[in-house]
Amino acid sequence: LTSAPRRWTSLRWQGRRAVGAFEGLETREAIAARTHWEIWVDPGEMPEAGDGAWWSGDLIGCALIDGSGGVVGEVTAFLEGAAHDYLEVRSAAGRVHEIPFVKAYLREVDVAGRVIRMELPGGLVE
Fold it and tell me: Which of 6, 41, 44, 66 is the most exposed place for a label (fewest CB within 10 A)?
């Protein structure tokens, strides 16, 4: 089941969730008929994230560097979790790691340089 593309008429953040309104969906019934649908946005229409911010999709393809300067691998996915989010990282050897994407570990995100630096606890990727 598909629907015609629709444009946002408003968008605001409520915690970690985006709450938006679309043209042509003004009634509660029209909106309820579209629950659990996925919303896709053309990347060319995404606004800039702003200074010191990034979109989760911007992290895909970045190299994950640990505190010692070693390359853990390449970020292949951003996973939303119940307690916190994760970076799925594939090492050069092909191992896949789910790294908690939390402030306690995060040191730097350089989207332009395609690098994420994190101070990871021992044993997390071994």
Answer: 44
